[in-house]
Amino acid sequence: MVRWTFYIALVLWLAILVGLKLLVRPPMPVSVLMIYMTLSTLGILVFVAANEERFQAFVAPLRSVFEARAPKAVQALVLAGIPLLIGWGAWLRTAPSWDAPFEPRVVHPEPPSAFTSHGKRIDAAALKNPLRVGDPAKLAQYTAEGKTIYYQNCFFCHGDALAGDGHFANAFTPIPANFRDVGTISMLQESFVYWRVATGGPGLPKGATPWLSAMPVWQDMLSEEDIWKAILYIYEGSGSTPRTWEEEVKHDKH
Amino acid sequence: MTQATTPSAFQAVKGTYKGVVKISLMLTATYLIAQALSSILPAADYRSLFGFSNRTAVWIVAELHLMFAAFVLGVPIFAFITEIVGVATKERRYDDLAREFTKLLAMAYTLTAVLGCVLLVLFIVLYPKLTGYLSGLFKPTWLLYIVLIFGEVIVAYLYWYTWDLLQGARKKWHLLLGLLVNLWGTALLFVADIWVTFMMSPAGIDDANNLVSLWDAINNHTWMPINIHRLLANVAFGGAIVAAYAAVRFLNAKSDEEKARFDWMGYVGSFIAIAAFIPLPFAGYWLGREIYQFSEQMGVSMMGGSFAWLWILQAMLIGGLFLASNFYLWLGMGRIPGGERYNKFQIGMMIVLTVGFIVWATPRSIIASGAEMAAMGGSHHPFLGLFGVMAAKNTAVNLMILTTFFSFMLYRRGNRIPTVSWATTGKIVQALAIAAAAAVVVGYGIYSYFVPSITRIGFSVYQVSAVLAAMAVFVAIDIPLLKGAKEIGAIRWGQIPARAQYALFFLAVSFTWLMGLMGYIRSGIRQYWHVYGRIMDESANAYTMTHGHATIIVSVIVVIFFLLVSAVFAMATRYDSPPNPRPVGGGDGSSAADAASMSLAAASLGRPGGSGGAQVEAKG
Prior knowledge:
The complex is a heterodimer of chains A (254) and B (620). Chain A is mostly helical and 254 residues long.
């Protein structure tokens, strides 16, 4: 088995490449494929080189080619194939494309320490949802009202299932946030979500620009209370909970 | 600092006195230069350095100072551990190893002090207003710092100069000195961390930034997590530098004896580096959690905002460290008779390591073309996005840690066959411990996608605890299991492929790069604040630079550091006498692993004696 190390490694490498290309849906972006294939190659090479017997078996076919012991046809194939492959790779990277250039985006925009909402200066660190009350009946009532507000205002972009797939969603690039995704609102405190809703796209920070967001400045259209109610609903409706810090309640240092 | 014969007590005191004079002169010169420049230069809040960015100047000098400080704090910890191991196992080569590295400290201390003095002058001259505020706020800690510097210098020099004097029955006093060096060094680290952490997470001041409570300012949110994180990192760093030094010497070795010696030295260095490295992610996680708790804005900047991509670079480096350390251990198994019995586990371990690496390196926000984004429906992939969050990454890193630990344990067992009656049962319990930990890690990893963030964070504690518990159970069984074990053969030190040495060198470079990169993130997330949320940076350099620019500066610092360290090593070893081969007893890696794990984990003693190995006397 060990004597076939080179060929097993080659087949494994190709199988990973084909598997990632064909089995992952929607297709994996090239940048991620590059990372995955680089690491897979590294893993295979490290495994091969970590044992002298395997390593010698791995390099034996290469040696036979580069030391001119392999059949002429194989030598020609390898010696011509390597520059051709590199050339093909160079062509793929530099060939003109009609595709729009990529726009790197950070995961979450950075919230400011303070911002203005409804004419008031708000300290983001101290901001809490005043409607997230302990009384279950009241909380349910606020959430139900939030649901109405959501369907009157947010539903068209963020969708019925709160998955960022509303009727207008595909008109935007990028599409609206998917609240059911574990990487969106469940990662964030409600104060962050309030800031994003109240100040919308124009309120995004200058850091990591350009930002593309069609989010309206909702403080111009909704009251403070309505925004908080809508926030209660998007958490409830998407089955997620806001990020909290238990310790903050117990011993706040700052 | 080299010595050919055993020095007398007088010589020890004289050498120490010289060290104190040297540091006194440096501090005096720093004070005079800073005072002179401050009085000559026109008053300003900020100054530039001959047109060079004040921020970059301070950055480079501060990072180099920190790296050398890590070196001079890490190496004594390494030396102290190996010295204890030498006493416990009665193997002289450990004592020689500790001595050889302590020898390097004098020059490294001098360089650290010079860099520290330059940094202080730069602070006072380039950032006079901020430095004035901080020094006023933390005056008592500055005084304490100076006292600690003198204490550290005195004890460290005594530690070196009395090495040969305090042998035999007097060895305990030398160990006490070693302990004091490390206590003093740790205290220095803790004091320096006060200033840096206050700038990140200020506390103990009122709305006008006046001091209300010095203790609150010291004991701010991030102080203790950074203390612990840096302390562990220093041990890992010290071990990695030792291993890299040994690797270079191995590659240049002219004889089999030399190769054997430096092969063994590289193994001990890497063992201590990896042992300290394994709990490091846990300490880092604690620090990250404290940052989030102090300020969500800062936390989001760090993990999800403009600094998020640097964590992919971090994942690449740490993933590379895991691969390199396993690679080194597996290659090392080739020189252990009987080690081939465990080759069958390598394929499974490599799959876990590679898949873990892939998950860890998966970005949450993917770089994609317009067509790719349209296909994904945004910048997040609906499936791969699941790997981009901490739930997946925590699971991956815990499994990688567990796998690396398993590699270590197999290496340790390489040439031994347990002879105790309960050997089979013991091995089954060990296997179950590993399997249970893996199940807990994976189970909580999956479950954490379905719970609120605060619960999810709690799950990471269970994952870490499961891994640590499995390690503790495994080691607790392994020590009695291998007591009196049958030995298949002696380790053939020196008979390891040269490529293993490049893995050791990679460890040291990666550790250093990581320090620079993580240091930049930690400092950079303050963005346009000197003291976060309190004192704004109003200089022209108060912007977050591109990742490309920042990482180039970090890389340049790493190159400078290695050039300087190489100079230190070259000068320290320049007058080394040719080594005299001298065989000693007890020379296999199993006892090295035993002994090091004993001193690190306070486990029972490794077996003294053993067989094989070659040793040469280091002459200073």
